Amino acid sequence: MFVYADHLRRSLLDLIANEAEYGSSGGITMKMNSLVDAEMIEAFYAASAAGVSIDLVVRGICCLRPEVAGLSEHIRVRSILGRYLEHSRVFRFANGGGPQTPVHYIGSADLMPRNLDRRVETLVPVRDPALAGRIDEILEINLADDTLAWELHDDRWSRAGWAPSTHMWRCRSGRRHATATSPDHESGGIGGRT
Q1: 139: phi > 0 → left, psi -120 to 50 → alpha, else beta; which?
Q2: Are 32 and 59 in contact (CB under 8 A)?
Q3: How would residue 172 be classed by pLDDT, with cut points 50, 70 and 90?
Q4: Of 19, 99, 183, 188, which is least packed with CB atoms within 10 Å of its CB?
Q5: What is the pTM of this model?
Q6: Confidence of residue 170 (pLDDT cuts 50, 70, 90)
Q7: What's the rounded Cα separation, in Å, for the pair 65 and 5?
Q8: Of 74, 131, 79, 77, which is closest to residue 102 (Cα–Cα)?
Q9: How far is CA 5 from CA 11, 104, 123, in A?
Q10: Mind listing the pLDDT tens digit for each residue in 20-55?
Q11: Under 8 Å CB-to-CB from 49, ≥6 apart: which residues?
Q12: Selection from 151, 117, 96 nearest residue 38 by Cα
C-alpha cells in the first residue's frame, strides 16, 4: 500500500519510470478525476518519449497535452461525463510486476500536488486475478466508449468520434456525417464540454 506524501509520489514516479525502461512494450492506463501535478506530467512525457503507450481517463482538469509530436505522441487522454459523478482512481502498469506482468492499484489520490503532498491518500494493490481482470474490463469499456467520451487532442477537447479538423462525426458503422455548424463542445478547453 502506498500512503501519503513522498512515498505515494515516489512510488508512482518509480512505476512510471519502470514502464519507460520497457519502451514500446511498456503500458500505463489510469483513471482519475484530475491530472495537474507537473512532476507527474513530466514523467508521462518522458515515458511517452521512450515509446510507452499511455491511456488516461481524466474526468476533470487535465494539464497534460497529449498527442504533441516530439512530446507526447504516445499519450491519449479521454474524459467520460455521465449521469453520475465518479470518484474511482485506477492505476495499471503493464510491467509493474516484471516483464508482461501487470499490476493494478485502486485508491483515493488524484495526481494533484495537494493530493500527493498534503493529504492522507492511499493506493492499494489489487492482487486477486479475478478482480484485476474486472478492472481491465472497466478500463477497456472506458477506452472504447463513443457515447459519453471526450478526447483531448493537444489542447482541444472534442467528442469521441468527431474528426477535430473536419467537424465530421464517425458513427459506429464507420460512416461519416457532416454537421451544419461547429458543435459547441469544440470551443476548446474544459469549459467547452456540456
Answers
A1: alpha
A2: yes
A3: very low
A4: 99
A5: 0.78
A6: very low
A7: 25
A8: 131
A9: 10, 20, 12
A10: 999 999 999 999 999 999 999 999 999 999 999 999
A11: 71
A12: 117
Order the strands of the 2-3 sheet from edge to edge: 2-3, 122-125, 103-107, 89-93, 27-32, 53-58, 75-80, 149-153, 156-159
Give percent above pLDDT 90 in the chain. 56
- pLDDT tens for 70-107 read 999 999 999 887 666 667 899 999 999 999 999 999 99
C-alpha cell at 149: 467520451
Question: How many residues does this entry show for the chain?
Answer: 194
Which grid cell is 81?
461525463
Radius of gyration of the chain (CA): 17
Task: State the first-to-last Cα distance of the chain, in angstroms, to the nearest integer.
Answer: 37
d(CA 18, CA 27): 10
Contact 52, 26 (CB under 8 A): yes
Closest CA to 30 of 44, 10, 46, 11: 44
Instruction: Report the alpha-carbon distance of residue 194 to residue 35 in Å, rounded.
Output: 20
